[in-house]
Amino acid sequence: MPATFIRRIASPKKAVTGLAVAAATAGMALTAAPAHAATTSSAADAKAIAKQMIPDSAQYNAFSKIVQHESGWDVDATNPSSGAYGLVQALPGSKMASAGSDWKTNAKTQIEWGLNYMNDRYGSPAGAWDFWQANGWY
């Protein structure tokens, strides 16, 4: 859309209506962007969330070691070979949807799923870390 066409409009509703009419005239479709949950953009943020969720220091340390090895605390980490995804490298990543629909971007959701997985399969993050040390995976 040329810059000369854009002008200041008094109300946001009129602006959206005007933009929709202009887009329709140009043969374009406007769609609403989906709402997204808050994302965690840094390893420090993810670690702080995990620390709050895992108050026992031994369990937090075990969880942290696994996450450091698996993803480097990168919420978006993807294993190019297996497709495992996220902080805890769930395979497939979509398993984490059981903890929340924002599993692709939200560290808290990924941590919650990872804790549940470690507790269910190994009894605790420490148990998962013991297994990881013996096998190089968990």
How widely separated are the two ends?
53 Å
Oligomeric state of the chains? single chain
The number of E-state strands comes to: 0
Query: What portion of the residues fall into strands of 2 or more residues?
Result: under 5%
Largest sheet: none
Mean pLDDT: 81
| General form | globular
Secondary-structure-based class equals mainly alpha
| Low-pLDDT ranges | 1-37
Q: Approximately how much helix is present in the residues?
A: 40-55%
Secondary-structure element pattern, one letter each: HHHHH
**SS summary, helix count:** 5
Number of domains: 2
Alpha carbon gyration radius:
22 Å
Descriptive account of the structure:
- This protein has helices at residues 12-25, 43-53, 57-71, 107-122, 125-135.
- It has 138 residues and is mainly α.
- It folds into 2 domains: 1-32, no CATH class; 43-135, no CATH class.
- 25% of the residues are buried.
- The model is unreliable at 1-37 (pLDDT under 50).
Summarize the structure.
The protein has 138 residues and is mainly α. The protein has helices at 12-25, 43-53, 57-71, 107-122, 125-135.
